[in-house]
Design goal:
By secondary structure, the chain is of the alpha/beta class. Helices cover 45% and strands 18% of the residues. The protein has 14 helices and 11 strands. The protein has helices at 2-27, 43-51, 53-58, 72-80, 91-100, 146-157, 176-184, 197-203, 231-236, 238-257, 259-274, 280-286, 298-310, 328-336, and strands spanning 30-36, 62-68, 86-89, 106-115, 117-122, 137-140, 170-173, 190-194, 207-212, 223-230, 290-292. The strands form 2 sheets. It has a 6-stranded mixed sheet with strand order 2-1-3-10-4-11, with helices on both faces. The protein has a 5-stranded mixed sheet with strand order 7-6-8-5-9, with helices on both faces. Strand 6, helix 6 and strand 7 form a beta-alpha-beta unit. Helix 8 (197-203) packs across helix 12 and helix 10 (238-257) packs across helix 11. It is globular and about 60 Å long.
Length: 352
């Protein structure tokens, strides 16, 4: 009996030791908190989650905890709270987050998408040229966001003063679904927004494209989505960031070479995440207006930040964005693949 008890005790002890070792190994596995919006401008993140590309790339080094966001503000708040490591996001939220943290919390490490924004007007709004906006009411997704800054800057360049400052044109913040509703009800005359809502305003709202934003930028390119990383995570896990960026690059190339298949995977995942797929005619119209690219198109971010500063959205102090980019890992990947590395002109990084 004593021998049996001894054998049992030894076996139990070895079992507990084995369990502890396994648990310890599991505890050493990094948990990557990753985010994206369920949107076509975040296609690499959406497709990568759907197919498990990032999980495969990180292998047994890490587990991914996916988080979905509907606004850049909420994503930045999660980053500040230490609940997010890497995410796809638009330019203005990244700039705001960088400034609010005194340049400490985040870095832009890669591009993801360019273009896709436009000003759509009602066909019966009496708008045929830039001279026809007096007395008009226009919408943007939210005050101070990327499209809001673009619209306000464009109006100013065309000689208009906003109603809130004694002028004739009213700009109101409206979430995209509300834009479409009020557009159909003829309670707004137009909206400056981003795909797929540009196409929805045209197809579902009966609107017409007045101005594609790419017409305002050199080579028609401006950043719509890029990848930011929590600075602490970037410093502690550069190997995981490299694996992520390699995968992002692979997905980007796959999307551009296989647009039809990419649309299917993208829409299926959006349906899974939101409960509703994007109508095929909307998707077919929206995708060609977006360019998927690993280039963050830094010059457009600096210009947009300057515009935001001049409009009073970035505080009284001129923002210095010279440290917002860290493309070291991305450029290392591009060099390995024989692709042209990306250089940043830091002279454009301070608003003036």
């Amino acid at each position: 009996m004593r021998l049996k008890s001894l054998v049992f005790a030894v076996g139990l002890t070895l079992g507990l030791i084995g369990s502890a070792v396994s648990s310890g190994a599991q505890d050493n596995k990094v948990r990557v908190r990753a985010g994206h919006f369920p949107n076509i401008t975040h296609a690499q993140g959406v497709i990568g989650q759907a197919r498990g590309d990032f999980e495969k790339a990180l292998g047994d080094k890490a587990d991914i905890d996916w988080k979905l966001f509907n606004s850049g503000t909420s994503a930045i708040e999660a980053l500040f709270a230490g609940e997010l490591d890497i995410t796809y996001i638009g330019p203005n939220p990244a700039v705001n987050g960088y400034i609010k943290s005194d340049g400490e919390t985040l870095r832009i490490v890669s591009g993801a998408a360019s273009e896709g924004a436009a000003l759509v007007v009602r066909k019966d709004a009496g708008i045929a040229s830039a001279k026809d906006f007096n007395g008009k009411k226009l919408a943007t997704p939210s005050i101070g966001n990327t499209q809001d800054v673009a619209l306000r800057n464009w109006l100013g360049e065309n000689g208009y003063k906003l109603k809130e400052k004694g002028g004739t044109v009213e700009v109101i913040p409206l979430e995209n679904p509300d834009q479409l509703t009020l557009f159909i009800k003829k309670e707004i005359d137009g909206a400056w927004t981003v795909e797929p809502w540009v196409s929805r305003l045209i197809f579902d709202g009966g609107g017409e494209l007045f101005l594609d934003e790419k017409e305002l930028w050199p080579n028609g390119q401006y950043v719509t989505t890029h990848i930011i990383v929590n600075t602490k995570f970037l410093n502690e896990h550069p190997d995981l960031v490299k694996a992520w960026l390699e995968t992002n690059l692979q997905i980007t190339e796959w999307i551009n070479k296989n647009p039809d298949e990419a649309k299917q995977v993208l829409n299926q995942e959006i349906k899974r995440e939101t409960g509703k797929a994007i109508p095929e005619n909307i998707l077919d119209a929206a995708i060609p207006r977006i360019q998927f690219t690993y280039d963050p198109i830094a010059s457009s971010l600096f210009q947009s930040a300057q515009d935001a500063y001049k409009l009073g959205f970035l505080g009284k102090k001129e923002p210095d964005l010279s440290g917002i980019y860290d493309l070291t890992i991305l450029n290392g990947i591009l060099k390995e693949k024989g692709l042209k590395e990306i250089t940043i002109n830091t002279q454009q990084s301070a608003a003036n």
